[in-house]
Structures are given as C-alpha cells and as structure tokens.
C-alpha cells in the first residue's frame, strides 16, 4: 500500500463519490454556522422546501455582529440585530444547537468549537468563515466555505471539493525569548508571501509544533489561510488527547478508547511525499510585526521596513501599501507611535494569549495615548481570566476587559479603529479597511501588543522579559 500523508488519510476517508475530472463529493462531520453567512443559506432551504439533513452535526454561535459591551441590552445596529435574530429563528426552526448572546457557551466559533470538544481529530469541518482552518490544529481537515456551500452542507451534509495539493512546512529547533506561535506563523507567511501556499493544504511538522500547546497550534493553523492555503493541520498527539479528554462533547468511556485507537493512526507515514516542502530554523525567528496591507508584509521587530527590491510583492503594489500605512522603505519600525491595541479574535483570543499579555503589563500602566480592546474569545475564556487573577492584573494596569466576540478583527460591529489611526492587532488580517475605513493595522503577537500598550510605541517585548 502506498504511503499516505495525514491529509490523505483524513480526506480519502470522507470521499463519498469521485467525479471523473471533477471534484470529490465529500462528507462533512461538523458544520459551524454564525449570523453572517447563514441567513441566505437558510432562505435557500426554505425556498426549495428542503430540511436540514443532520441538525445534530451543525452548531451555531453568534460572534461577528455582536457588541463587546452591554451584551444584556438590545443590539443597536439594525443590520446586526436582524442577522442575530435570523440566526436564532433559523436554528430554532431546524432544531440546530444555538449559542446566542447571553448563552454561557457563546463566543467566537473557532474558539468555542475546540473548548467544548466538538472539534476532534480526523474530522472534516466547515464553516462559512475563512478561518475555519483553526480546527486543523487537532488533525482535522477544516476549511471555510461560501454561502451556497453552507446551504449544500445543511441540506446534504456533503460538499463538492477538488482535492488540494499537499505542502509540508517544517520548523525545527528552539524558539528564542518572547517568540510565540503567532510569531512563527507570521514568519512563515513573510517567507512564502500571502499567496505562497495557494492551491495547497499545509501540514506543519517539526520540533516547534510538537512542543506547542493546543492554543498555539490553533493560532498557527488559523493563519494558514493568510498565505493562500486551503487550510492547515498538525498531527494529533498526547498534547491533543490531553486537551480533549473530559471536554463536554468529546467521547467518553469505551467510545474514548475507540477514538484514541483511530486518532493514533493519524500521522504522515515515513515515506509519504508532498507536492512542496519547506524547512525553517526556529533560531531565525524573532518577535514579528507587519508593516503593510497583507499578512505577508511582515518582518522581525528589530529590522527596518524592507526595500521594494527585497519583497515578493510588485514594486507598485508595495509602494501603494506603504503609502496607505504612512510608512517608507528602510524605516525603523521600533519606536513608531500607535493609537490602539487589540487583543482577541479567533487567532489570539484564548487564555494563553491573555496570560502572555498579562506577563508584560503586570506592574506597569497602560500608555495614555493608547485605547486598548481586550476581548476574550468566549465566556469560558472570560471565566478563566477572572479565576486566574489575570483580570486583577489588567485592571491594576489601567485596562478593561470586554465581553466575548470577534470585536475589532473586522469592521462588522461597533469596535472600529478610526481612519488614519494605528492599531497593533493580534488578529489575522491587515487589509486596507479591515479594522475600519482608513484604519492602519500592524499584526503582532500578544507580547508585542502588550509592549506597545504600555509604552505607546512599537517596542521589542524582549526588553521586558
């Protein structure tokens, strides 16, 4: 039998039917829905008189349009309020689990799935959201889909997909001081470019990923989409099993034992081949920060902004990007004044991220010129922040904790960065207007965000550790 990659093993196990010279008909194990991409899909079902085939395999949560303060009050924005109401109505009609505003399990879809044990190794997982790749951290094939595909999965529990090519990215060695998983993924994207993995599904391998926590692995897989990949995944191991054991919807008893027997087979065979492979040295990675308008335009925080001759993007595009950001070639990034700091999103809204942020701000004060939005990814994370004493540290340093939601990751709720203002953001995208019309976003890790929050300028977090 030919040797298989992890990706092959999971993909091939879910192919219902192969279409000659066409896509595979592909079974979906878990389908997450939220308020933004689902309303039109549900309308499609209604217009065709079709039911949801497996309501118990679909899970709904409100996150994109939700406010992050005063969630007990009616939502003020009419469009947001309507979308949230539609999600509640549609899920009730079809018997789908719904964690709306005020629900104890509410939060960002890619945070609540794993923390409740809904996301499991070897599964296929989709959602009408590009950062569904997050769930690949568990050895699952997970990817975002469009509205018509949401309808397809609701009605048939299947989707039609061409099988992507396979890429492996290896990072070996020991990470340096203050280098977090976010820095690892920003480094990889900077090396390959924002389109460097287009057409591929990426497996991350090597010492660095093996030694990462599940939170860190989720951050890395979340950002796979930012280099053009269809998704990313990491082989499940004891770290994965320990994270899942005892979670509410994870298997129990004999079912756990059976699941474990299967999960342990989910790894790439020694002689399996990839269409493309890269290897990086952990020692080459320092804390990262972006300076442009795509996630591939980033560099080590101690470096200057590159010359146009040094970047993969075309010269005209690169100069337009720097013009939007108000930066110039060969400028130093350290010391640049910032206005906003955002800690949160499906990339960095987990408890580990708040622990990191608190490790720097403890005993220090928020800079007067900085507006900080600290937004947990779920109510479970919010509870952990309080139980671990992190909220006390944040409060003493002049920070406030907001309520769970996507928040300032995207300009789809009240948390918008004003035009021309600079935001150090732990989210995943720095496109023009992503955090608000005219907003200027610098992507970074929770440690870099914390260092900026207490100094008011871009600062190397290694100075504080």
Summed up:
The protein has helices at residues 6-12, 39-48, 78-94, 109-115, 147-156, 181-192, 207-210, 214-222, 238-244, 253-263, 315-325, 345-348, 351-361, 379-387, 390-396, 446-455; strands at 15-18, 24-27, 30-33, 58-61, 97-99, 124-127, 141-144, 158-161, 165-172, 200-205, 231-233, 276-281, 288-290, 298-300, 340-343, 371-374, 422-425, 440-443. By secondary structure, it is of the alpha/beta class.
Could you name the key traits of this structure?
alpha/beta; Aconitase, domain 3; Aconitase, Domain 2; 3 domains; four-stranded parallel beta sheet; 18 strands; 16% strand
Can you describe what's shown?
There is one protein chain. Strand 1 and strand 2 form a beta hairpin. The strands form 5 sheets. The chain has a 5-stranded parallel beta sheet, sandwiched between helices. Strands 11-10-9-12 form a 4-stranded parallel beta sheet. It folds into 3 domains: 156 residues, Aconitase, domain 3 (2-Layer Sandwich); 92 residues, Aconitase, Domain 2 (3-Layer(aba) Sandwich); 175 residues, Aconitase, domain 3, CATH 3.30.499. The protein has 16 helices and 18 strands. The N and C termini lie far apart (51 Å). The chain has 465 residues and is an alpha/beta fold. The radius of gyration is 21 Å and the shape is globular.
SSE map:
Layout: H1 6-12, E1 15-18, E2 24-27, E3 30-33, H2 39-48, E4 58-61, H3 78-94, E5 97-99, H4 109-115, E6 124-127, E7 141-144, H5 147-156, E8 158-161, E9 165-172, H6 181-192, E10 200-205, H7 207-210, H8 214-222, E11 231-233, H9 238-244, H10 253-263, E12 276-281, E13 288-290, E14 298-300, H11 315-325, E15 340-343, H12 345-348, H13 351-361, E16 371-374, H14 379-387, H15 390-396, E17 422-425, E18 440-443, H16 446-455
Parallel strand pairs: 3-4, 3-6, 4-5, 6-7, 9-10, 9-12, 10-11, 15-16, 15-17, 17-18
Antiparallel strand pairs: 1-2, 2-8, 13-14
Helix pairs in contact: 2-5, 6-8, 13-16
């Amino acid at each position: 039998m030919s040797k298989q990659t992890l990706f092959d093993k999971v993909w091939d196990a879910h192919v219902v039917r192969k279409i000659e010279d066409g896509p595979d008909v592909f079974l979906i194990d878990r389908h997450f829905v939220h308020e933004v991409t689902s309303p039109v899909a549900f309308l499609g079902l209604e217009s065709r008189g079709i039911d949801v085939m497996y309501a118990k395999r679909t899970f709904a949560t409100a996150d994109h349009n939700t406010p992050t303060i005063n969630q007990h009050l009616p939502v003020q924005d009419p469009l947001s309020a309507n979308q949230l109401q539609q999600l509640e109505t549609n899920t009730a009609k079809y018997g789908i689990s719904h964690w709306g505003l005020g629900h104890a399990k509410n939060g960002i879809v890619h945070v609540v799935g794993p923390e409740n044990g809904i996301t499991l190794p070897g599964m296929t997982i989709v959602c009408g959201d590009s950062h569904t790749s997050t769930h690949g951290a568990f050895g699952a094939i997970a990817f975002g889909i469009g509205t018509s595909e949401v309808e397809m999965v609701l009605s048939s529990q299947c989707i039609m997909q061409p099988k992507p090519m396979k890429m492996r990215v290896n990072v070996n060695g020991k990470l340096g001081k203050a280098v977090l998983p976010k820095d690892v993924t920003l480094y990889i994207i900077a090396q390959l470019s924002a389109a460097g993995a287009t057409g591929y599904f990426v497996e991350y391998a090597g010492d660095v990923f093996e030694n990462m926590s599940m939170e860190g692995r989720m951050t890395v897989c979340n950002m796979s989409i930012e280099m053009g990949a269809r998704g990313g995944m990491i082989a499940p191991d004891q770290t994965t099993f320990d994270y899942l054991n005892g979670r509410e919807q994870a298997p129990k008893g004999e079912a756990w034992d059976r699941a474990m027997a299967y999960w342990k087979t989910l790894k790439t065979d020694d002689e399996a081949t990839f269409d493309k492979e890269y290897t990086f040295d952990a020692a080459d990675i320092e804390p990262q920060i972006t300076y442009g308008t795509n996630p591939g335009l980033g560099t080590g925080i101690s470096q200057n902004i590159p010359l146009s001759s040094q970047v993969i993007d075309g010269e005209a595009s690169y100069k337009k990007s720097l013009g939007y950001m108000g930066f110039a070639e060969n400028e130093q990034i350290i010391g640049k004044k910032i206005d906003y700091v955002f800690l949160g999103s499906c990339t960095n809204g987990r408890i580990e991220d708040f622990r990191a942020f608190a490790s720097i701000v403890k005993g220090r004060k928020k800079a007067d010129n900085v507006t900080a939005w600290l937004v947990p990814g779920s109510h479970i994370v919010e509870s952990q922040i309080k139980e671990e004493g992190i909220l006390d540290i944040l409060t003493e340093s002049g920070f406030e904790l907001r309520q769970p939601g996507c928040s300032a990751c995207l300009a789809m709720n009240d948390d918008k960065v004003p035009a021309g203002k600079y935001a150090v953001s732990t989210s995943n995208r720095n496109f023009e207007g992503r955090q608000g019309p005219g907003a200027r976003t610098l992507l970074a890790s929770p440690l870099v965000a914390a260092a900026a929050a207490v100094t008011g300028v871009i600062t190397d977090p290694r100075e504080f550790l």
